[in-house]
Amino acid sequence: MHEFDWSSIPNALPFLWDGMKISLEITLSAVVFGIVWGTLLALMRLSSITPLSWFAAGYVNLFRAVPLVMVLLWFFLIVPHLLESLFGLPRGTDMRLTSAIAGFALFEAAYYSEIIRAGIQSVPKGQMAAASALGMTYGQAMRLVVLPQAFRNMVPLLLTQGIILFQDTSLVYVSALADFFGAAYKVGDRDGRLVELLLFAGAVYFVLCFAASRVVRHYQNKMKTA
Amino acid sequence: MISMNKVSKHYGSFQVLADCTTQVHKGEVIVVCGPSGSGKSTLIKCVNGLEPFQSGEIIVNGVSVGDPKTNLSKLRSTVGMVFQNFELFPHMRIIDNLAIAQVKVLGRNPEQAREKGFKLLDRVGLRVQAEKYPGQLSGGQQQRVAIARALSMDPICMLFDEPTSALDPEMINEVLDVMTELAQEGMTMMCVTHEMGFARRVANRVIFMDQGRIVEDDSKEAFFGNPRSERAQQFLAKILHH
After folding, report:
1. Interface test with A, best of B87, B165, B190 (most A CBs within 10 A)
2. Count of other CB atoms within 10 angstroms of residue B8
3. What is the pLDDT of residue A86?
4. Nearest CB to A136; choose among B50, B79, B105
5. pLDDT band at residue A1, thresholds of 50, 70 and 90?
6. Residue B29 above 90 pLDDT?
């Protein structure tokens, strides 16, 4: 029987907190960029301009049909080279964080765009007609009338997707980036207490994600009664 | 003011509008009626280009609606429209519903736009509701706000697409009263409606449609007194005798 020894955790807390900051940074950046890019993709997909809608459909289908961990590896391998040659950065600059954020954002955008597309379509057609009848252009009607209603309906789904994304950030271990999971792994490996550290990390992920999903649920219920 | 010449529209092989020709002069109130599916809503949605049409011509205040070079948004900002389901913007307060297009489309200053919004709300008797959201108002109140919102753009004419069809019976009159008042002030109006009492009292002319065609286009006296087509006679018999 394995004897648990949790003593290496207290000393490692600052290091683990640094890892958590990286996890949160990746999550927040990817959510923000993913929603912005996802909104553009959704608008392209719904556009009557065929090349745009084909591009968006192709993009979404591509990213939804490949494993996330593979996309992260592509970006880990490709983005540094690209940036080095584009901006003349010295070779070996650490761009793991940048490429991880880029990979997550572009990948998540495919999922966000599907959520946002459904959200836009859930707004009654008459709203667009009414906005147009008042003389608004398509862009104004989208921005002022349709999207605000769509996003309001979508907030729970977008947050839930954000929670999934937060869990998925642990996949950056493939690039040896010390996010929360990576940090826990490193500490456990160093002290020979891998099981304890992974259990601890799992508990932290569980508490955070469970709490966040309760918040989403609460918001959903509030919306229903409003 | 509005002139339609042989307007036709079809979805695939289904003919929605067939050779519709009519004129609406300044200050006239036209009631468009007919059985459901006869194309009456489609017809008035063609007037401000919300529905495209394949052939024929519609001229509104000298501007051709079907011309691809026409700035449709600009044209629509001069034509008020009221919908069956009100279509107020649910995420904005009533006063903002009235101000937003004035500010964003006409470029009016927000203070003036609100001021005008309050005046129009006064006129439809809803000033006290200005800070509420549409969902907090009754259907009749929402439709009166929708009329005020259309008026906020100082339209040259107004289109009504079955404005009372989605309302509970006891709320129909408050909306018809606002429309009647508007007609008496000389607004040019095209109304798709089944309210024959309103047509009798207020309309100058009645257009009767069936299967995408304008079957009758006559003064209200002639239409109600002596409809020429059998189809219109049947229609009137059905809606007047129960």
Report:
1. B87
2. 15
3. 81
4. B105
5. low
6. yes
Interface mutation vs chain A, best among B73, B133, B151, most A CBs within 10 Å: B73
* Strand ranges (E), B145-211: 157-161, 188-192, 205-210
- Cβ-based contacts of A145 with chain B (< 8 Å): 89
Considering CB atoms only, which of B50, B87, B104 is closest to A136?
Answer: B104
- Domain chopping of chain A, boundaries: 10-225
Contact list in A for residue B77 (CB cut-off 8 A) is 134-135
Distance CA(A138)–CA(A115), nearest Å, equals 21
Alpha helices in B48-168 (DSSP H): 72-76, 94-104, 110-123, 139-151
Q: Is the pLDDT of residue B121 over 90?
A: yes
Give the lowest-confidence range in A2-11, A101-110, A137-146, B215-224: A2-11
Please report which helix (H) or strand (E) contains residue B60, including its range: strand B55-60
Look up the pTM and report it.
Answer: 0.86
For chain B, give percent helix, strand, coil, nearest 5: 40, 25, 35
Among residues B82, B50, B77, the alpha carbon closest in space to that of B66 is found at B50
**Poorest-confidence range of A40-54, A78-92, B54-68?**
A78-92
Instruction: Tell me which chain A residue has its CA closest to the CA of residue B46.
Output: A133
CATH dotted code for A10-225:
1.10.3720.10
Mean pLDDT of B116-137: 95
Asked if B58 contacts B72 with a C-beta cutoff of 8 angstroms, the reply is no
Compute the C-alpha angle B141/B146/B170, nearest 5°.
30
Are A136 and B149 an interchain contact pair (Cβ–Cβ within 8 Å)? no
Provide the pLDDT for residue A79: 74
Handedness of CA A72, A76, A77, A78 (dihedral sign): positive
CA-to-CA separations, A96 to A14, A82, A102, in angstroms, rounded: 21, 13, 10
Q: What confidence score (pLDDT) does residue A92 get?
A: 66
B78: tokens are 């001069």
pLDDT at position B49, please? 93
Return the pLDDT at A221. 86
Question: Average pLDDT over chain B, rounded to whole?
Answer: 93
Which residues of chain A lie closer than 8 angstroms to B105, CB-CB? 134-136, 140
